Each structure stands twice: as C-alpha cells, then as structure tokens.
Amino acid sequence: MPPRRAAAGAKAEAAKDVVLDAASNATEKVVKAEEDVKDAVVSGGEFRDPYPDMTIRRPKLPAYAQFPLAATLSFALASTGYSLLGEYTKGELASVSRSQDTWGEVGILAGWRLIELGLGWFGNMDSIDVAAMDLLSHGPSLYLLTAFYGLSPSTGMISLLVDITSAAVPFYLLRPLSAVHSRSSKLHNRELVGFGLQAYTTALSTGIYAVTIVLSLRLLLPRILVIYFSGLPTLEPAYSASYAALLPVALAFGAAASNFIYPPFATTDKVKDDEKIGEFDPATATLRETVEWNIAGYTAKTKVIVRRTATAAFVTAFNTYLACTMTVYGIASTGAATYAAVWVSAVLTSGLGLAYVGSE
C-alpha cells in the first residue's frame, strides 16, 4: 500500500474513533440527565431542581433600598392614578374636595402616607395585608364624600382603588406573600383560615360594621353633621340609613377587617414564653415580675391580635381625621374626630369579636 494511502486510512480510523467516543459520551450524559430528573421527583409529587446551581434567580435589592423604592413607586402610582381619574371624570373628585394650599399641608399628608407605608413594611405585612389596611383607613372619608357630598359611587370606588393599588403593588413587586396568604406553605392551624371560617369571620365583621354605621347615622351623626360640617349639602342619607342600603359598604369593610386581623391571629403557634405566662403565681412573684406580667404577660396569639387591631384602629382614626380636616371644605376638628371615632369603634369591636372566634 502506498505511504500516502496508508496515512489517510490511519487518519480516517482515528477520526472514526473520535466520533464514536463523542457519541458514547453524549449518550451517557443524556442517560445521566434522565436519571437526575427521575431522582428530582420526590414523595408527594413535589419537584426538586436537580441542578440548583443553574437556576436563574432575579437579583435581590439591598435591604436599605427596598422601602425607599416601595415608597417612590407608591407615590408615582398614586399621582398617575389620580391624574387619570381627574381626566376620566372631568375633575369630579376635585369639585367636592379641596386642594392643599400650603407646602405644610402637602408635607403633612405626604408624611402620613410614608407612615402608613412604613407601618406595613416594617410590620412585615405583604401586599394583601396592606390592601386591607388601606381600605380600612381610606374608605371612611370616601364614603363621606359619596354619601353626603354628591360624589358618584363609581368615582368614589375608583379613587379608593387608586389608593389601595398604589400601596399594594409596590409590596407585591418587592416582597413575597406571607405564609398566611401562601397556600403552598405549611402553617399552624391552616384549617382555621379555610373558606368556611373565613366566610364566617367576614360575616361577623360585616354585621358589626353594619350595626355600628347604621346606628351612628341614625342616632349620633345627624347632630354632629349639622354643627361641625358646615356647607353639607344634605342630611338625608343619615336619616334614611338602612341595613340593606349599607350592606355593600359594610361587606367591603368587614372583609378587609377580617382578612387583616383574623388569619395572622388564628395561625400563630404557641411559643416557650406562653408556658411561663401560665406558670405565673402572683402570691410568690416579686413586684418587678408582677409589673412585667401586667404589661407583657400575654400569649403570642394575643399579642398578634392586639397589634393588628391597634394598627387598624390607628390608621383608620388618623387618616379619616386628616382627610376630613385637610381635603374637605368646612369640617371642624371636633366633627372630624367624632366621625373617625365611629369607624374606629367598628374596627375595635370587630377585633374583639374575631378574638373570641379564634380563641382556644
């Protein structure tokens, strides 16, 4: 055989061996990948990523930048939403409310909005919590404008939706849902926040709100409205208040109060300190131990519902008062405080009722 032909044959054989080796290696990798995928399926039908190092994850913002970004997004969404609302309704909301005349008033309202967002963010609330809290705090003033100042219900609802969305969307983008609102997470007493009990607690809070608002409109508010709400167009909604007419309003507030207060309370598990509280003996305790027990001698569940109810009452009182005195014409401080107290009493009574339902 000529040398050139022999060399060519040797090269062909070598190339053939390389191709066969590559094909063999590729086949082994495919088989290995299939085995990895099979191994990734664990009991219960759950799937575990066989290649965790290759999972693409979005970069996480530094902790110090998250709340400022959430606040900035909230103000931007609110500004855009109200601008669009003004164009769509041809300034209907502006016709029944007053704008802020000084930078001091603007600063007070902006500062309060930051406090609201801060309560939600640093209170470890998720977007659903913040949406419920925002409805409880911003709803009373918009109900006043709708019922007594001639604001159309559609404009009132859209305005409330702008407030809720501008607060909840930044939380949704920057913070995952809590275990209470995530159905895939394992949670203590998950059955207590099922559909049946949620419907029951919503009905309870709705009933409390309905009774509180109707009785206040019939017995308390007419005199307050006459004395402290100058320029009020009509008192007819107060005298003609009925449970049927107010049911949609009460249902919205009842659902928000129930969702904000009850689930985190009902799903809170016992902690070690709860046992110490049960072991407290006033006969042998020192003065310091007695004072500490009276101040902080509550179970983890009790602390949760007290904190949630107090937060809801605080934002309801403060936002309603500010909205009445700074965004509506002719409302005196006493009238604004009394009107806010009606809604605060509904929140507090709902908290007491929900505490009784979720108690062990």
UniProtKB/TrEMBL annotation:
Keyword annotations: Membrane, Transmembrane, Transmembrane helix
TM region(s), chain numbering: 63-85, 143-174, 195-221, 241-262, 311-332, 338-357
Record has Membrane as a keyword: yes
Keyword Transmembrane: yes
Protein name as annotated: Uncharacterized protein
Lineage: Eukaryota, Fungi, Dikarya, Ascomycota, Pezizomycotina
